[in-house]
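Question (not urgent): is this output format expected?
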Amino acid sequence: MRSWCLAALVALCGVPVLSAASGPAHLVADLKPGFAPLDETGATFDSYTAVNGRVIFLATLEGDVQPQCSLWTTDGTAAGTSWLAGLCDDVEPNDYTPQAGIWVTTGSMAFFTDYFGRFWRTDGTAEGTFRLGGGALKRGFSGVHRPLLGPDGRTIFFEGCTEAYGCEPWRSDGTPEGTVLLGDLQRGQESSDPEGFILDGRRVLFATYGGVWATDGSPRGTVQVFQTSERADWLHVRGPEIFFGIGISVWAFDKRDRKVHVILSKYSLGDHIGVSLAEAGGRLLLVPFDREATPGISLWETGGTRASTHRVGPRFTGGLEEFAGVGSRVVFAATTGEGFDLDLFFLDPGMRVAERFTRCPGGCPTVVSGVSGFAPFKGRLLFAGRDPLHGTELWSTDGTPQGTRLLKDLCPGACDGIPVSLRVLGDRLLFRDARQQLWVTDGTEAGTTLLALLTSLPTHEPWRFSVDAAALDGRIVFTGFDPQGGLQPWVSDLTPEGTAPLAQIGSNLAAGLTNLVPTAVGARVVLVLYDGSVTRLWGSDGTAAGTALLLGDTTLTGPCFSCPGMTPVGGRLFFNSGARLWRTDGTPGGTQSILDLGPAGELVGPMGALGNRLIFTAAQSPVPPTIEPWELWTSDGTAAGTQKFLSLTEGNTPDAFMDLGGQALFFVTGLWRTDGTAAGTLPIRGGIAAWPFEPAALFRGKLFFQAQDYQGPIDLWQSDGTAAGTSLLGQGTGFSRPTSPSGPVAFRDALYFTDWNSQVLWRSDGTAAGTRPFELPLNSNGDPLRVARPPVPLGDQLFFAANDGVHGWELWKTDGTATGTVLVRDIAPGPAFSRPESLTVAGGRLYFTATDGEHGLELWTSDGTATGTRMVQDILPGPASSWPQNLAAADGNLFFTATDGEHGRELWVLPLEP
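Got this back:
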């Protein structure tokens, strides 16, 4: 199945594929073969741009924790397609905001912003791809202002934003020293918000609040040309005059006498919201925007003075759109009646009143407002036109009614083709249709050909999507869709037979399992799997032959958002399904039902350990248990040893059970304890509620756990199972405690936990006086390490992920002393993040997931030394991620889930060395 995907990746990345026979980790079994329903949000490829004879593009691969975003390059072949740089490798998880895009290219260099607005340059090589402005420079917070390629063809001018200066004018030639702030025009952190960059001979003009400025590319040569009452909405240069619009008035600045004079005042335009300028056929046309499509809107023409500005009738009832020149003739579309259709008009030299197209061969088409603009192509205009016989299809005109004709009926019959996003590339014109198909035309009906499907997801507004493609030696590179590869980069020689996927980057279509969480029992794991319709139980010893359904064809109740959890107690796993309690050792023969409450009963709430016994809750229908009694039960794993010991009507069922040796603590209305008997079950502390999302830690005979005072925040509490021994850690001592403690872990006669909000690591000996922030090394800025939760002990070391502000999020360890707290290895060198996660101890080593910036998020291992910290295997070769998850250590094996680009998310196993 889809062996071509792996072959493409081998050629793509130059990394050998490790088979199950030769690699240390291997796929256990393809538990859900075939293909999954398409989810096109999982991968995007866009911003195709030609640079140095190649094409670069941005790729975003949806991940389980955070999307992986990067820049790629291609020469049009799979072997010549490679990764250039990661764009999200040094940012915090969950801060992803899609703002990336290629700004402008000089031909030999391209400038772009990443997904966080930061400023980059690339020449199409890895060494020539890097950030400018020290990583702090961003392009306008609004992300809508277009940069400009300067008069030298090598330097760009743009709005750049920094914390120190706000948003101001910048220029860059692609070098660090050539990336310069042109002026702090609005002093301090306030912003002048420059926009509307245009060329004026050898200088660049732009508008800010209160003025229009010019620059020669140097700070000294950045000067104000003239002042304005408000920000200019647009700028236009023609000869010695600079035209600009403010609201519904048009002005001109004469560079000869340096005076500003009005061209068209708001009093001439009536009730309109604005005016734009269009230059077509050698004429300057002023186009008002109508507020409510009321009759009386007019097209104006100007010669540069108020006296030479006049209406070019007739008056229209609504919008004026799509101005283009065909030689000296101006063609445009305007509304003359009700609805959204516009008629075609033309202006010849000397005409003061525009005329409507009439007597076109076969009838003149209308133009649908906002759907598609005019595309000048080989001396003609191509556009989306509508007539009663064909609907909205592709039309062509030479600017005369007689030369206007239907070029291609893209969707014959009752449907509409709706050609949109018309774009000229070389000697061809590309466009897409309403069915998201890519077309190419040479301007003739026979030469108008369907190339590829761009997406399978329909849209009611196809005109909102542009054709994203780049030319490459007579070919184009774009994003296409196929049923197996999904959305991928494609290459085309502009013929249907020469159009195909370029290379497989990532994979989202192979069927995989969701909520695939292996739970270890002895040397096996048990998995509860929901395939979209039914829930089944599997067990595995790490081999295909030893992987089997534990209940045969019997299915469990409920979809996977209510999949039963596995609760390990006394070397066995317990789970519930509806009214039945089950026990399993991971084999079909060892999986048995030990309690059936019948149609009137239901197992509700959590299960937990009470020493070597299971404790759980049940209720008699109907629920909620606030009305009906709920029951406490225990089980030793046999039907005879499964017994109810108490019925309660207090509050809801418990949120969690916490094992305290021969007792269990739980929350109902406050904190309770039980020893598994009715007499030994009693409340010990009121006024606090459970916070069941973090594990409890047993330390010095007490349980330390998160709980929330009804009147206060989440805090760290301690209890020995008695009222006197239950208290908030540091209560009544003025103790300065963390605002949101998380994940207490016992290590070397101390308790360690992190503050969820500040990411500070704390250390405690179980007393208020002995609880304080752990003394960690300071970075170059004098700030302590930021620590991710939770730390994991292994031998005499405690491992955790931390960020010192220099190396990004990396793997650290401590022996419990400040001097013994060190970086294990800078896996992703420099400030990039390796993102160590899922820290798990197995076989005397630490296993975790991380990325070195070249191989994506994969499985890694460490013995606590830099040389002993290495990637286990590149399961999905190259920079794409296999996203290992749900690591579970069993005797002799490490189980986890991953996707290799061919099978979707499935169960994998790593045999551990004895």
